Structures are given as C-alpha cells and as structure tokens.
Amino acid sequence: MFRKLTHRVFRDPIHGYINIHEQVIWDCINSKEFQRLRRIKQLGASHQVYQTAEHSRFSHSLGVYEITRRMFEEVKGLADLVTNYDQTVTLLAALLHDLGHGPFSHTFESVSRIDHEKYTELIILGDTEINAILSAIDTRLPHQVASIINHSHPNKILTQLVSSQLDADRMDYLLRDAYFTGTSYGSFDLNRLIRTMRVSGERLVIKESGIHAVEDYIMARYHMYWNVYFHATSRAYEAVLYALFRRLDDLKESDLLDKYPRLKTFLVEEVPRVESLLALDEAVMIYYFSEMQSSEDPILRDLSTRLLNRQLFAYEDIEDDVIEAEVIKMLEANNLDPRYYLAKDTLGQTPYHPYEKETSMLIYIIGRDQEVKELSEVSEIVAAISAGKEKKESKIFYPKIKKVGAYE
Amino acid sequence: MFRKLTHRVFRDPIHGYINIHEQVIWDCINSKEFQRLRRIKQLGASHQVYQTAEHSRFSHSLGVYEITRRMFEEVKGLADLVTNYDQTVTLLAALLHDLGHGPFSHTFESVSRIDHEKYTELIILGDTEINAILSAIDTRLPHQVASIINHSHPNKILTQLVSSQLDADRMDYLLRDAYFTGTSYGSFDLNRLIRTMRVSGERLVIKESGIHAVEDYIMARYHMYWNVYFHATSRAYEAVLYALFRRLDDLKESDLLDKYPRLKTFLVEEVPRVESLLALDEAVMIYYFSEMQSSEDPILRDLSTRLLNRQLFAYEDIEDDVIEAEVIKMLEANNLDPRYYLAKDTLGQTPYHPYEKETSMLIYIIGRDQEVKELSEVSEIVAAISAGKEKKESKIFYPKIKKVGAYE
Amino acid sequence: MFRKLTHRVFRDPIHGYINIHEQVIWDCINSKEFQRLRRIKQLGASHQVYQTAEHSRFSHSLGVYEITRRMFEEVKGLADLVTNYDQTVTLLAALLHDLGHGPFSHTFESVSRIDHEKYTELIILGDTEINAILSAIDTRLPHQVASIINHSHPNKILTQLVSSQLDADRMDYLLRDAYFTGTSYGSFDLNRLIRTMRVSGERLVIKESGIHAVEDYIMARYHMYWNVYFHATSRAYEAVLYALFRRLDDLKESDLLDKYPRLKTFLVEEVPRVESLLALDEAVMIYYFSEMQSSEDPILRDLSTRLLNRQLFAYEDIEDDVIEAEVIKMLEANNLDPRYYLAKDTLGQTPYHPYEKETSMLIYIIGRDQEVKELSEVSEIVAAISAGKEKKESKIFYPKIKKVGAYE
Amino acid sequence: MFRKLTHRVFRDPIHGYINIHEQVIWDCINSKEFQRLRRIKQLGASHQVYQTAEHSRFSHSLGVYEITRRMFEEVKGLADLVTNYDQTVTLLAALLHDLGHGPFSHTFESVSRIDHEKYTELIILGDTEINAILSAIDTRLPHQVASIINHSHPNKILTQLVSSQLDADRMDYLLRDAYFTGTSYGSFDLNRLIRTMRVSGERLVIKESGIHAVEDYIMARYHMYWNVYFHATSRAYEAVLYALFRRLDDLKESDLLDKYPRLKTFLVEEVPRVESLLALDEAVMIYYFSEMQSSEDPILRDLSTRLLNRQLFAYEDIEDDVIEAEVIKMLEANNLDPRYYLAKDTLGQTPYHPYEKETSMLIYIIGRDQEVKELSEVSEIVAAISAGKEKKESKIFYPKIKKVGAYE
Questions:
Q1: Do D115 and D66 sit in the same domain of this protein?
Q2: How far is CA A260 from CA A254, A308, B308, in A?
Q3: Same domain for A36 and A158?
C-alpha cells in the first residue's frame, strides 16, 4: 500500500541516522506544515539559560519517528502483531505528533484557547498539504493517524509506542535535550530499553532484566525537570513572555496591533483557525517583538525589549504572603501594573505516576514467570519516589527596579 | 583596571563550561548587539542538510572566548608575556569577532558591499551599546579590541590567538560544527593542542611532540570542508538564497520592497550603516521571506517559497560547456530567467597554506633544539597535502522542471 | 618541603590527563608496591561478564589521586584551609589507598585474615620501597599518610576527600567502571559536583544548586551495584573462586600445595606478613590455577579448570528452603561435596546511609542561608530511597550436572 | 547447517553489543583456546605508557566478529552473494584470527620461529577444542575457516572482509585502541564506512560519497601508529623485553631455565608445538619474570626486575654513528653486554600501500558511473601521502647508568 523509497537518511547526533524507507514519510517531511517545525524551538525559553539548546521540533520529530521505527524492527514479537499498514500509520503519528505547536509552545497556549494536541489533529484532518499527502493514499488514513495521537485508536500498543509514560516521544526529547544542553542528566540506555521490550497481550512490557534501565530513565526525567525544564532563569524568561502575551491579548481589539497582522488575526478569532496558527512561528514572533520595541504602548515596548535583550525578571522563593505584598507595593510605587509585572508559579513534578487512570499510560514489567506487574510494584526505588513527598517549588517573578542589568 | 566579577558560567557541550571572571565580558555578552548573534546561525544553509546544525554565532563566540581564556591560563609562559590588561583586550576581541555578520552570513555578503570583519570593527567603534561599555572603561579600549581583530595590533601573539591558521576561532567552530551536525570528522584533540603550545619570540609555536595533534586538526578542517561546508545540498540552498538576494537587489528601488522596510533600507543605502545591518537578523529575514510568498513579483514569490519549504535547485557536476547551454535552453523554454535560475560554483580548499604572506597566520613547530620551523617543513603529511593537486569541484544548480518534489 | 617536578602527565580516558607536579608522587608511582597494582584488576570477577572491564587498580589509584588534586585546585576555599604539606599528604593517601589489595580483592579476603585497608597501612609503615620514599622526606610522613586512610587524622576534611560517602575513591570507580564496562549507568556530572563543593566549618559540603548532581551520583551507585557489581554471572564466578580458596585453605598443611609456594606461604602464616601478600598478584594466581589443572586433588583440578575456562556454577533465586535441600541431594548423588559445590549469597545495598555514626562519612548540603543539612533531610528522593525497603537478592550457586556447557 | 541459538549478547563499549546468533560461535568463544586470549593483551607494551590500555585480544576478537557480522547484515548486496554457510565460515575466521598469538605478541615472535598467523592455522587444524567444535559440524569446516585467514579461500570478498587494508580487524583495533588509551586519534566513522560499502564484481568497494570516511580511516591509522604503537617509551619497554627473550634463548639448554618449565619446553623445541604455545600466556610469563628476579643469572635478574618495576631503558634519536659507539663504550666500562643492553630500531609506516601485489588487499572506490578505481587514483590526499617521503624514526635504547630512576 505504501510505496517504498530508495533508502534515505538524515544524520542525527542522537540516533546516528534517521532512516526513511517509505515515500509517504518523505513527502510528509517535505510538506510546508512539517518544515514549519524548523522554526519552532524544542525547548522554548531554556536556550536563554542553556544557550546551545537551539534545537527545533523538526529534528525532535524525526527522532521520535526513528525510535518508533527501531521498535518495530527490534522489539521481539512486535512486528508480527502489527500489520505493515498499521506500522506505517504509527510511524506517521510519531512523525507528526508535534505539528500543532505554536511559537514558544507552552507559554503560547495561554492565548491559544486550543491546545497543541488538538491543533495537531486539526492540521492532519484539515485543508493542508499533510492531509493531501495522506488522503491521496487512503481517505481514512488521516483519521487513523490522528486516532493514535488522540488515543482513540483501538490498538493500545500503537498509542503506547507514541504516547505513554515510556514512549518514543519522551525517550527522544530526554536524550536530545541532554545532548543539546550539554548536561549528562538526561542520558539513559535507549538500546537496553528497546532490547528488553516485549509484547504481552495488548501491552508493551519491559523484561525484568531491563528494570534498571527503566529506573534510570525515570531518574533522567526527574533530573531534566529540575535542572533544565524548571530552571529558574528559564521561568523568568517565560514570565516576561507570558506577561507580553497577556498584554497583547488585552490589546487585541486595539489599532496598536495592526502592525502585527498575523498575531492580531490569531488573537481576535474566537477559535483561531488552523491557517492562523500555521502563519505563526518563532521567526514571525521575534520579528514582531523587535517591531514592538517602537510601539506606542509603553508596556509592549518595555516587555519586548526585555525579551530580545535578555533583561529578565528577578525572582525569589515564595515562603509566605509577605513577599507578594511587598512586591506589589514596590511595583505600584513605580507605576508598574502587577497584572504584567508580577508572576508566580508553583512547579512540581513526579517523574512517574502509578495511578494514571488510562492504563496504557503506565509502565509494566514482565517477570520470568510471565507475570506482568505495574512498575511501582516491582521497583523499590520507583515505589519510594512515587510514595514520597512531591518536590515543589514556588517562585515570584518581578522586575528589579533602579539597577542597571536588572536581569542579573 | 577591569573589575572582577563573582565567577559566572555558561554550560557548553564542547567546553563543559564557559567561565566568566570579569564584569566587562559579562556586560558585553548582555549587550543588544551581542544578543543579536542568537538570531544568526553559525552554519547558514547547512542545517538544510544536517538538520540539527541549528547552533548560533552566539554560542560559537562564547566558545572562541573560552578557548582563548584557557590559552592564557594553560599555555606555558604565555600569561607572563602579556599584561593582564592585554589579556582582557584579547578576550574581548575573541568574544566580539563575529558581531558584524549579517543573516545567512556569507551569502548575505553578496549584497552587503562591506564584509563582516569591517562591520565588526564599525560596531565596536560606532554608536553602540558595545562601544559604550568599552569606552566607559578606557576611551582607547574599543580601538585596541578592534586592532586585534583587524591584525593591526603590534603584539602579533594576540592576533595569532584570535585569527591565524591555528586560532581559537577555527578550533571552536570545527569542534562545535562536528558536535551539532553529529559527524565525527571535525574532532581533534584540543587539550593536547593547548598543552603543547609554547611561546617562542613573538610567536605561538607547537612543541614537536604535538605535531600529530596539529596534523589531526588540519585533517579535521579538510574533512569538514568537503563533508559539511561544501555539501552539495547546502550549496543548492545557497544558490536559491543567492538568487533571491540578487532579485531583491535588482528591485531595490521598486515599491514592491516597501513591505520589507528594514531590508529596503539596507539595500538602498550606498554604504549600509551599522544600524541598518543590526536591524537585520535571520528572524527578520525569514519573516520577510514568508511575506514574499504573496508578493506581486513572481520571482520573489517562487524563490521565497522554495526557501521556506525546501524546494531546492537540482545540481550536476560541470564537466564541459554542454550542460550549461542545455540548462539555459531548458530555462528559456520555461520562461525562467537564467540570471536567477542558474547558478554555478567552483569550490576548492586547501586545509593549510604554507605560503601566506602574513607570517603570523602560519603554524610553527619548535623542536627539542628550540629551532622553530614552519609546519610544512616538518610534517611530511602536511607537505604532501600542500604540494598535492588541490581538490576542486564545480557544480551547476537549476530548478528541475515538471516534476513534483523538484528538490529531490 | 616536597620537591617540585617538571609537570608530568598520564593520559586517562576518564580525566583526560593525570597531572603530576611533585617528585614524591612520581617516586611512589614508580615503586614496586605501586607497580604491582597493574597486576590486580579493579573489578575482579566482573570481566567474566563485562569482558572489557580489564582495568587495574593502578589506573584507578591514579584517578583517585587526580580527583583529589582537582578538588584542592578547584573547590573554593579548600586550598586556603589546608597547608601545602597537608595537601600532599592527602594526595599520597589518595594515591596509595588501595596498596593492600590481594588478587581478586574481595574474594581473597576470605582467606587473608587481615582486610585490605589494614594491609595498606602495614605496607606504608613497613619495610617497603614506599615507606623508604616517604620516610626520606620526613619520618612522620608514613604515619600521616596512613592516618588519613584509617580515619585517625585530626583534619576530618582530608579524610572526607579520600574516604566518605562522597569521596574521590567512589567518584573515580563509578566513572571508570562505567567507561570500561561500556554501560552508561555510572555516569554523573563530576565537574558539577566539584564546582558546587564548598567548605563549611570542618566539613566539605555541597551547595544547594548541586543537589541534583549529588542525587545523580547516588543513583549511579545504585545502578552500578545492581547492574555490574552484583551481576549474577559475576557472582557465579566468585562462587567458584571462593570454593577454590576454601579448598586451598583446607589443604594448606598438605604437600599438595608445595607446587604453589607463594600461596602456601601466605596460607600457613598465622597472620600473613606484608611480604607474603606482596608476593601475590593475579598473574601469579592465574599461573597457579593453570598448574592446579593437573593437581592430584580432584577438587582443585575441577575448580581451577572451571575458573580458567569459564565453566561457572549455575544459579537460582532462593525463594524457600526446598531448593537448597534439593541441590544438596543432587550433589551428594554425584559425590560432590556441598562444602565446595554449593554457595549462597544475599546481597543488598543502599546507595546512601543517612545514619552513619561517623559523621564525616555523610553528605551535607549547604543552603543559601548558609545552613548545613544532611542530604536526606533536603533531598526528597534520597529520603525516599533511604526510607524505602532495601532491595535484596538471594541466590544459590551450584554446578549443573550432566550437561555440556554447564556454565550456561 | 549451523544451529541457531537464542540471541545472546556481550556488552561492548565500541559496538554497544556483540550479537551472537549461532551455537558454533558461542561454543568457540567458550573453548579453552579462545578463553586464553583473555590473558593476552591487545597492545603488549603500550600499557606501560597508556596505562589504561589493558584490553585483551579476547574483546578485540569479539569486535572483529561483530563488525563482520554487521557487514553481512548492512552492506547492500553482500548477503545475497554469499551463502549462509559461507557467512558463518567468515564469521568464524573473524572470531578466531588471533588465536595463535603468544604472550607480548610481536616481541615474542623473535623467539617463536613460527609467526602467529601460522599458529592460528595450526590451532584450528590441530588437536584442540576449537577443532573438535568445528569438525563436529563438518570435517571440512576447519580448513575452510583457515583458508579465509591464510588468503587461500577462492572467494576474495570473504578474505577482504577479514584481512585487507580496509578490514574488520583494522577497523576494530583502531577504534578499540583509541577508546582504551583515551586518545581521539583512532576515531573514524565506522557507520558511514559500512553504509557506503558495496559489492562490485569480486570486490568490496566504497561508494564515492564515502571517500572522506575512508580518508579519515587512513589518517586514523597514521596517527595511531605515531602516537600509540610507535611511542618511544613503549619501544623502550619492548627493548627490555626483547633483550630478556634473547637472553632466555641463549640460555635455553641451561639448567637455569628449569624453573620456568613451560618456557623452556617452548624454547628447546625445534619447531614449538601448538600445545607448547597454548601453555604460554601473559600470566605465566609475568609469573616467570617475577621468579627470574631471584635467578642466579645476573642478566635475567636485572632485566626481569626492570620489566616488572618499569625501569626501562633510556633512548635517543640516532643521527649518526657516533652515538652507538659512545653507548658501547659506556656499556663496556660498566661490564654490560651490548648484546642485551643495547637495542636499535627504525620505524616507518605508510598508512596505505597502493602498490600491494595482492589486489584483494587494496581499497577500491566506485564512482556514480559504476567505474571502480583504486583509492589513490581518486583521493588527492591519499595520493599525496603515498607519494610523499615516508616518515622514519631511528632510536637507540640503553640503560642510564649511575642514576636513581634510570627509566626516567
């Protein structure tokens, strides 16, 4: 059904090569919706701290595809249980799962009203090059691909591969983010994980002998969260970005936004259309930020300058209510609106959740006796972590006043 | 003279950490001219082939700074010969040497009339944040920094560190480009090179025991050129970019360019001002390319779409004149102007030039007897390479007609 | 006091270079007692499983020295608190801490009556080349070096560097064993650990910002134990080795052992002398094993052949008493003495012990408020692991009967 | 014909895993002749300089097997041209090609009269466990395996895989020796080499697009020779070893050698039998060296002590005849016999020989036009190196007299 292609490859520092064997994969990669992912960074704000983390969702998406491809090739018994057709459907889902991201992914969702998973689905099903490529093969193909991404596909093994607590997506981004930040925290033994995967009933499971590789992967997640994804300076950058988005949203009906037409279009639509989302990427947004430096609105002017020249907000741990009151007093004394100049966040993350309701999200271990158990029943260390107090961190962000180099 | 700073660091996959010890370095990094380098990719077109090569001149510049810093710290005898003041001047030159790059560096120079080295000098000496930071310390400091970059500084050791055939700039970009492309070609033993460096008279030299590390470095250059920098697909992308710049230059007085004001400003100025250059970066250009997709000019429309969606030109080796004539005939039959739709290039590169007139550009080896010789006199392999026939490659680039997916 | 040496280096894959700056260090490395460590493998039995883990205690000892040296150079405030003399004393302790190991280190202690730490002390204080080198500098030097190794030195910071739950010894062996086995489990961020170390009072502490690096190190320990050090096949090899040592010990007064004079000497001495220990290394033992293949004693003959040709014991998890009884019955039916042909072990390991009595063994974290807390009070994850059920594993080892390739 | 085995693996830092799929491979690995390779170091004397280079011929042999296995799996068209039976024959040849090495491989051949290739053949064809394993499958199998190793097999592609200027043996040892010494010189892109291999007629060839990977491999060889294999300190160690072997050979009929029976047996046999070779390994030799420290012969005593405690000979470049005369005078004045206490060597190495008579040893490149050319016709750099002056180095080795630490 799917036309074979002379084997093509992309070099990749994480996987050595990304191997393409089918025309439809190649065509999707060369569609304009997929090429747009070159212009959306994988780590959003983190490259303000880890300055080499400039990698895009384009290369990450190729990586998720490649891990999924390897699983079909290397996980014993898997290829026998899944038709060739369904394998390609799954590979397409792996490749395309991030299509719906906006610029500065997570922060952007504060003004987007629809989350990126939903947009991904709309892009695959809508009037797009991707849809045309898929529909030309089989009119049901777009829906089949989308159903894996939104977990409605009947074969739970396929959704597990692409989206679960041990999926190709997480595996790729941990390894990739570790490589491009230059930290060692995210490393774990991908080869061993794949080598110890098996199929049991309707589930992907890990052999008992692979349990340490799974524990290592769980710890990699834990460390990447606290060292990279939740880094206070990244959050300070995100706080400015979030404030800017809020200001733009508040001004969305104003003529002041006419200079940023793609953004205005997106903001004023009740439910922004796919075309409006696709018209935005990080190049466009950075161009707009740079234009906003000469806006008539002083808040846009200030916040956009902060973003481009890295004059971030300062931050402190929130230990009681006193600090917030003090910051507000200080902001008001300086005529700064707390709606934009004060942000708080509380972050917590458990690297593994044993109580997910959707059981296909869990990680399972199969013993020598073929009995399958949920990970935290078998791993003392995962049990300890899951039962332990969740680590939480609350910070308040606001501009340092009357100091050159407020971002320090 | 230079105020010390509590030690600050940036993580970096190549060097582990970038270590900052002085306020002036920190302030320059946080200037808007330096932050702009985050928006200019180190490898221009190459990330169309090596899709993970998305790293910027920002992190490269930090790397050049760090290697230079290590040399002052680790090269025996070097710190004794150079005052603390001159060390910091050199570090500033290392950090700032790439400030003058435009978007898509080398291709951009086809329309810029001034080369990037000259712009770097103008930025350091002009009305910029960088200049203000430097002048506040000493009014002569900007000129001193610039004099290292333009090779007019009296102390040749300092220019050798930053710009010669064995300098911190080349060392960083080879290692960095190899890391971010995921190739192993560019790797060489930086630690050993630094460990075997010495000072002899007014020259940096390499101890005889380090000669293999130098040969390895020369070969790394050779391989990176042919495998990465001169990759045919990158050149095909550059051919489209170059054609688009030519079209824009031809249209520069036209109203059609009013929609791209920063670009128009730059193109119409007889000698573009520093401010005009600084207003351009790759985010701005990509935004403009995306706007050009709906230009009234069909050539702008076509070329910008090719760029954004990777519909590159095809290419062939030029072996005789026949092929060019055939391509022109084909283009004319399809109403395509060869001025924009045909490109040729001939590339050749020798990884080491023993006959440079400026002797501070050469590499020197010091024997056990303290005699200093130029590299190709001592290394049979470098002599062989330098005497050998230079490898050259000529290609012609043009659009494939009547085929879906012309970029294949 | 200590004579400087022209800087000498050893290449090392873990640390890049081992840097030697003092004559006494160089002389100790070239002593015959230290060179003997080239003939004792770091991982004993593990290279039967991880076949590339052939590295010796010689290179490990150099690594422990190098990490300690870097700490004095890089840990802020440390060098100021410790005299140059005491720094060198500590470096000597780091270098020499493993001198007292016998062949096949831990298994060998079953017949050695004195543990390797004690032998290390005896070698440093006894009539040895090492002692001569140290005493020639200062007659008190051997005792000072030994006092760091046996924890009696008054400056607890020095003992902490060399021997605690976060010491140069553990740091080197985790990284080294991971490298030479080719597993990624043992990796952690050594540079960050060193960068975040500080001195507070009489203690080495880790800054709060380094806590994730410490957690990563703790997890590296955990994983290396279960994946490498406690690997069942290694233990099967050790079970054979242990049986052979027991047989040799039982036969120690017999003429049968006259063919292995160095071993006999060691076994018959009530408290084996230092000279007797130093006369043994793994080359000698393997030669003896190879000679034992033609011993008149059938048990020696069988066990030594098993060792050299990797015909290890089989193993099973012990879940109840039934299995042991069955194995004994089977052995007796085959005229195999369970004293030698049956082994059991129960292994458990907690990667961090918060309740050590000797407080210099613990890991401490210093907050921004300069308050120092024990690690498990600050790290939720270490607290969870320490409070959790300890993972334990019990196995029984015995020869498979009537099967070619019993070791499978 | 060959029985399949449940997939078994060995971890390996170079290849990730060594994959075993057939019973005969597993059985050969577990034979006593193959296990003996655990006791012979790959790099002989080099671990005196690169102290971590303690890896054995056992793990190297597994590596050569694995590369050959990957070639059959990954080189396009190869598996179609070679029967399954011949593939396994080739894998066996790859695995077993180093069986005939003696302790301290190359130096040992000075007293062995038969080279290691010949001994490998004798072991495969003789009365050994290996021969029994192979013959049990097919009586012709031992000869078939041997014929690949000695180049008499009719299918030249098979000999090219295992033994040519671009073979699995060289590929593995360059990568492995680089890893275990911790140098980066030996690295090249194995994956790309394999990816660009093709079959053309009766030859393995490399696609034109892989030429840079081949050049990189050639340079890796060049650098490893000069930095590792020919390192002066290793040669100083070999000079002592060689002198000791000469002395032993001169004393071979004497009673003095009765204490080293396995060695005596080997030396006195006119053509040493396979059993005599197999009875020797590095553990045995080091035990004997350690015993020789108390020999009645003063030369054995001195040389063996030098070896074990690393009191190597000093060395100097030979620039004229004066130095040799001076050394002889000095030795005679000290009653040292120049036959044992003076050594000279001249080393030269060309990393690629375009004029080999046996054409299956050469490297071939296939162009887009399917024309096959010998490497130096296509690669300017290899042509330059091959045409250039061969680098040569002559040194004289002798003991430093009247100086403590003569080995320095």
A1: yes
A2: 11, 17, 20
A3: yes
